[in-house]
Structures are given as structure tokens and as C-alpha cells.
Specification:
Layout: H1 10-62, H2 66-76, E1 81-86, H3 91-96, H4 106-121, E2 126-135, E3 153-161, E4 167-174, H5 183-229, H6 242-288, H7 293-319, E5 327-329, H8 331-344, E6 348-353, E7 359-361, H9 363-380, E8 383-390, E9 394-401, H10 411-414, E10 425-426, E11 432-433, H11 442-452, E12 456-461, E13 467-474
Parallel strand pairs: 6-8
Antiparallel strand pairs: 1-4, 2-3, 3-4, 5-7, 8-9, 9-13, 10-11, 12-13
Length: 487
């Protein structure tokens, strides 16, 4: 089976679209969070650097002469803080030098450093920022420094004009007070807590929200499936959103039209059956007046077949309609009654097994289904046995006859078609048997009633001889919604 990431249900597709959309939005908004985090990471080193620079300027201002100032610069300087006297820079050099590789704008970092120095020293010192960016111990810069074990430090390059008019070139690397975070903890924070947990929360929310949104559609589908088994079920409840109410009203209108159409067809067939009785009666009288006995017998048989077909057609239309309420049925009593009636009529019908508890169904229709199966077995076999097996979730009723069976396996399904009858056929031993009697509607009606109960009805040949009609009757048709079941 081919696995597809795109679900084939409306429920699955809506959940996937919502989760993917929210997750994509989370990724885009995370860039803002990373930028803000990166900005804050550079802000702390900038403030520390500015404070250190202000302390350096204050010491230099208090020095009595240049010799002392040089000693101070030599004493303060190290690998992370270098101070050099320089000549006054030209205007062109000042204009082309400033660059910032970090996320903060050049003016923002410059204002931050200048603001700290002004608060500490006043307006006597001029500061020109040349460069500022984040860096970690591994040489990473920018956002990648957030995933290092140590918090990133800031590299700064400024030109500083002292009150005496001299210029200092200052290059420094300032950290964040020795803060330490393990890489695994960082990965857990960024990937698991920020993305995975939020994704799970969004997925759960989408599952619940979409389930509530598509529930009316599911109910409509269940009602449509139930309508195929019993068109007289309760109409669909009109409630919910506007589109759902419109669909429910349309469905109920369709159900009403189907019921009316079936009623019209039944009335039409009833009228035709009634109207045909008069001409058939006249034909029967005229046939009895014929002088030739052979012709009388032949025509009498044709008339009887016509009357049987009319009755069977009307009976088929009326018989599969379910107009009664659903009840708990004592299947053992029903089958025993059918077998007893058959034995009183001179047929050999036995019953084996029993149901442990009642089944839910429509008593009149189910009795007719079983009656048709027993009659079919009697018609084609000298002895019929009804086997009842309680499987817990269902009851299996097998009507076995001792007839010739249906050797052509392709015909096991076709015999359920209306008016389809097997002509003279050979059994598995090669003997000819006439399986033509009847109208060809008995099995059609039986399967229609079985479908109305959510059951299955199949035929199968037994080894040796005979045919089995197997009815698998569920305890309760779970595909029918609760509000469609009648009690």
C-alpha cells in the first residue's frame, strides 16, 4: 500500500493544514525572538565596555602628565582590552570606517556606549564607534553564537577623544559576567520547549476543533448510509451552522421524496394488480370452456404463472419496506416456529444450536427473510437444517438444504438479482435438476431485509452436495447512529 502524507479525509486534511500553517507562523515569529535575544546579548557587553571605558577616561583625566598616562594605559591594557594613542583621524576615514556586523544598528550601539559615558563623565568626551559584533569561543558570529556553551561576548572598536584633545584607539572584547549554559540545555530549550511542545499543543487543539467542525458532515454521511437500509428512519435533526442546517433540510427533503416515490410505486402496482384480476378471471372462465383438455391445462398454467408473478412483484415492493420499530427478537422462538410450520406442511426441517440472547431487529421483516431462506431450501432439497451459532457480537444462521447446489460459482451472486432464475442445471454429480420454479424474488427480498439489519447474506456450496445460505446477523448495527435507532 502506498503511503501518502496527504490524507484522503476532510478531517485529516484540515488538521494538517492548520498544524502546518500554525507551525510556519511559529517559525516566522521565532526570527523576531532570535533577533531580540541577539540584540540583548550584545547590549550587555556594550554597557560593560562603556562602563570600563568611562573608568579608563577618569583615570587618564586625573593623571598629572603624559608619562603617567602612558603608564596607566600600559597597566590597563591586556589581550581583551587594548589602548593605543593615535593621531586625530581624518574626516574621510571617519566616514568610511564605521560598520556593524551584529543585529543592532550602528547608531543604536553608538548611542548606547555614548549614553553610558555621558552619564559617567558628562559631555567632555567624544566617542566614535567603528565596529561592534557578537563572537563566541568557537569563532561563530551572529545568531549561531546563541548555541555555544558560553554566552557570546562583544567585540568593540571605538575612537575616543579625551578632553585634552588627544585620541585613543580602543579595541575590547567584553563578556557577560561569565554566564554558562550547556549546549544540550540550549537545544532542549529552543527545539523541544519552543517548537515540539507548541506543535503538540497546536495539534491537540486542531484535532479537537476540526473534529467539532466536521462532526455534522459525519452525521450526514451516517444518515445517508442508514437511509439505504431504511428510508423510514427518523429525519435528520436540523441544527448547527447555517450550511449544516441547509444540508440537513435538503437531506430530509430527499428522504421525503424517496418515501413518497416508493408509496406512489406501491399504489401503482397495487392498482395494476387489482385491475388485472378482472381480465385474468375472465380468461380463466374462458379457458375452462375450451373443449380441448390439453389446451386448458397449458393455458391454466400460464394464467397461474401470471397471477403468481403479479402477487410476487407487489409482495416484493411491500415486503422490503421497514415501517415497524426495532425490537429485541427471540431468534430461537422465531426459527422454531418457522420449522414447526414447515413440518406441519409435510417438510423435513430441523434446527440445531441456539442464540444465547436476543438480537435487535425488525421482527416481521426478519421473519420473512428467514422464511424465504427456508422455503428456498425446501424447494430445492428434500431436507433442510437450520444451524444457529452465537458468536457473541453476531449470530450466524445457516440454512442448509440437500439439493444439487449451484456448481457454477459465478452464479452464487447472480441468483440474488431480481427475477433471475437458474434453468435446468447440473449438480456436482452431473445430474440434471430443474431449478426453475418460483418467481426469482425470494433471495432478492431476503438480502434486502438482511441489509436493512446491517447483516450479510451469502450462498456457498457444501462439499459433496447441498447449498448453504449463511446469514450473519449482528447483535446491533453499529453503523447506525444512536439517534436513528428505534427502541
Amino acid at each position: 500500500m502506498k503511503l501518502s502524507l496527504w490524507p484522503d479525509t476532510l478531517y485529516g486534511r484540515l488538521v494538517l493544514i492548520l498544524v502546518a500553517g500554525m507551525f510556519a507562523g511559529q517559525l516566522f515569529t521565532s526570527t523576531i525572538w532570535f533577533e531580540t535575544h541577539d540584540n540583548r546579548a550584545l547590549e550587555i557587553p556594550a554597557r560593560l565596555f562603556a562602563s570600563r571605558l568611562a573608568d579608563t577616561v577618569r583615570l587618564l583625566e586625573r593623571a598629572p602628565d603624559d608619562s603617567t598616562r602612558r603608564e596607566i594605559i600600559g597597566a590597563l591594557g591586556d589581550a581583551r582590552y587594548r589602548l593605543d594613542w593615535i593621531d586625530p583621524p581624518t574626516s574621510a576615514a571617519m566616514a568610511s570606517a564605521p560598520t556593524v556586523t551584529g543585529p543592532l544598528a550602528m547608531q543604536t550601539v553608538s548611542d548606547l556606549i555614548s549614553g553610558v559615558i555621558r552619564r559617567r563623565l558628562g559631555e567632555t568626551v567624544e566617542v566614535r564607534l567603528i565596529d561592534a559584533h557578537l563572537r563566541d569561543d568557537s569563532g561563530h558570529t551572529g545568531v549561531w553564537t546563541l548555541f555555544n556553551s558560553r554566552m557570546p561576548s562583544g567585540d568593540f572598536h571605538v575612537l575616543l577623544k579625551l578632553p585634552q584633545g588627544r585620541w585613543l584607539d580602543v579595541r575590547a572584547n567584553e563578556g557577560q559576567a561569565g554566564m554558562l549554559t550547556e549546549p544540550r540545555r540550549l537545544v532542549f530549550d529552543y527545539l523541544v520547549r519552543i517548537y515540539f511542545l507548541r506543535l503538540m499543543a497546536v495539534l491537540l487543539l486542531a484535532l479537537i476543533a476540526v473534529r467539532l467542525a466536521v462532526r455534522p458532515l459525519k452525521q450526514l454521511a451516517e444518515a445517508a448510509e442508514a437511509l439505504g437500509r431504511n428510508m423510514h428512519r427518523s429525519p435528520l435533526r436540523v441544527s448547527g451552522l447555517g450550511e449544516v442546517r441547509t444540508a440537513a433540510r435538503s437531506f430530509n427533503a430527499m428522504q421525503a421524496q424517496l418515501i413518497e416515490g416508493m408509496a406512489v410505486r406501491t399504489r401503482f402496482l397495487s392498482a395494476v394488480s387489482h385491475d388485472l384480476r378482472s381480465p385474468l378471471t375472465r380468461l380463466r372462465l374462458r379457458v375452462e370452456m375450451l373443449p380441448d383438455a390439453s389446451w386448458r391445462d397449458r393455458l391454466r398454467g400460464d394464467l397461474e404463472e401470471m397471477e403468481a408473478m403479479v402477487r410476487a412483484t407487489l409482495d416484493a415492493v411491500q415486503g422490503v419496506e421497514i415501517t415497524e420499530a426495532r425490537h429485541e427478537i427471540d431468534l430461537d422462538s422465531m426459527i422454531d416456529g418457522l420449522a414447526e410450520d414447515a413440518r406441519e406442511a409435510g417438510h423435513q426441517v430441523g434446527v440445531e444450536g441456539h442464540a444465547l440472547r436476543p438480537v435487535s431487529g425488525y421482527p416481521r421483516n426478519l421473519k420473512r427473510c428467514l422464511q424465504n431462506l427456508v422455503d428456498n431450501g425446501i424447494r430445492y432439497g428434500s431436507r433442510v437444517v437450520v444451524h444457529v451459532a452465537d458468536l457473541g457480537h453476531a449470530v450466524q444462521v445457516t440454512v442448509s438444504d440437500s439439493g444439487p447446489g449451484i456448481p457454477d460459482e459465478t452464479m452464487l451472486e447472480r441468483v440474488f438479482e431480481a427475477y433471475f432464475k437458474l434453468d435446468a442445471s447440473k449438480d456436482i454429480h452431473g445430474h440434471d435438476h430443474d431449478r426453475n420454479p418460483g418467481t426469482g424474488l425470494g433471495l432478492t427480498i431476503a438480502r434486502s431485509i438482511a441489509a436493512a439489519h446491517g447483516a450479510t447474506l451469502i450462498l456457498r456450496n457444501r462439499a459433496g452436495t447441498g447449498l448453504d445460505a449463511v446469514l450473519m446477523l449482528p447483535r446491533e448495527d453499529s453503523s447506525i447512529p444512536n439517534r436513528f435507532r428505534r427502541t
